[in-house]
Design goal:
alpha+beta; Aldehyde Oxidoreductase, domain 3; eight-stranded mixed sheet; 36% strand; elongated
């Protein structure tokens, strides 16, 4: 049986708020077949660079291509792991240091699948989705960020 899930919009403008994360978690309380949730929150660090301290990252993307790649990664994860549901959100625009730019939330009947799927998803997103981050420096400079 082939899993085909509706493509979901991933991109949000600006930072992902703690309230949004909390509401996402709370909305799953009625899904009583779920035994585990695993969550990844990517937060912007104030790294020290030659141009000074990073004050934020400005994200851009080839949105249509990126959304398609997100969909393919989601479908692969649903086929590899026993998941009840999955949510992925990534910021576009400026995200200041200390704020969240990536929110990956997976639910499964069992914890092992949730942990493994979460790691798989984050690594696939970092390696394959055409998203570009420009690190903004306090002194007005910038550096294009490379995913590692």
């Amino acid at each position: 049986m082939e899993n085909t899930h509706k493509a979901k919009k991933v991109f949000v403008q600006g930072p992902i708020s703690p309230d949004f994360v909390a509401r996402s978690i709370a909305s799953h309380q009625s899904k009583t077949g779920i035994g585990a949730h695993a969550i990844f929150l990517g937060q912007i660090r104030a790294d020290q660079k030659d141009g000074g301290a990073v004050t934020g990252i400005e994200y851009t993307a080839y949105e249509e291509m990126a959304e398609q790649t997100f969909h393919e990664i989601r479908e692969a994860a649903f086929s590899k792991f026993e998941l009840s549901c999955m949510h992925i959100y990534h910021s576009l625009g400026l995200v200041p240091t200390g704020e969240i730019s990536l929110f990956v939330f997976v639910s499964s009947p069992h914890r092992r699948a949730a942990f493994e799927a979460l790691e798989y998803l984050v690594e696939e997103i970092k390696a394959n989705v055409p998203i570009f981050g420009k690190e903004i420096m306090g002194e007005g400079g910038h550096v294009w960020k490379e995913n590692s």
